[in-house]
């Protein structure tokens, strides 16, 4: 249920206030420190990702990578998993992509072939 609420919150923030609204929303979900996260970070992260993926599967409109990644960051931080929303761009042909990195574990939630084509411009 929380995953659906966060996904709708991100959708609304972007729709009403644009990227500024998304930044404002993400800033309210402070990133836990690595020491606060405990040893079961990977298990909690996998559980959160599965939950969000279930919500997206049944959603009539499929979110973009930015919407999914922003909602995932909010969910992960709520579960005390330190993470960052990463936004990258490529020049030719122009494109942008967003993904989530789990801090301290090296885990990245995005296909490798997607990320390798983008230069990071923002890490929240």
From the spread of the alpha carbons, the general shape counts as: globular
Which sheet architecture does the biggest sheet show? 4 strands, antiparallel
Proportion of beta-strand residues? 15-25%
Structural class category: alpha+beta
* Rounded Rg: 14 Å
Please estimate the helix content. Answer: 40-55%
Mean pLDDT: 85
| Distance from first to last alpha carbon | 24 Å
Q: Uncertain runs with pLDDT below 50, 5 residues or more?
A: none
- Helix/strand order: HHHHEEEHE
Please work out how many helical segments DSSP would assign. Answer: 5
| Strand order, largest beta sheet | 3-2-1-4
What is the β-strand count? 4
Question: What can be said about this structure in brief?
Answer:
The chain has helices spanning 2-27, 34-37, 41-58, 65-78, 112-115; strands spanning 83-90, 95-102, 108-109, 119-123. It is α+β, with helices and mostly antiparallel strands. Helix 1 packs across helix 4 and helix 3 (41-58) crosses helix 4 (65-78).
SSE blueprint:
Elements: H1 2-27, H2 34-37, H3 41-58, H4 65-78, E1 83-90, E2 95-102, E3 108-109, H5 112-115, E4 119-123
Antiparallel strand pairs: 1-2, 1-4, 2-3
Structural summary, described in words:
The chain has 124 residues and is α+β, with helices and mostly antiparallel strands. The chain has five helices and four strands; from the N terminus they run ααααβββαβ. It has helices at 2-27, 34-37, 41-58, 65-78, 112-115, and strands at 83-90, 95-102, 108-109, 119-123. Strands 3-2-1-4 form a four-stranded antiparallel β-sheet.
Main traits of this protein?
5 helices, 124 residues, alpha+beta, four-stranded antiparallel beta sheet, globular
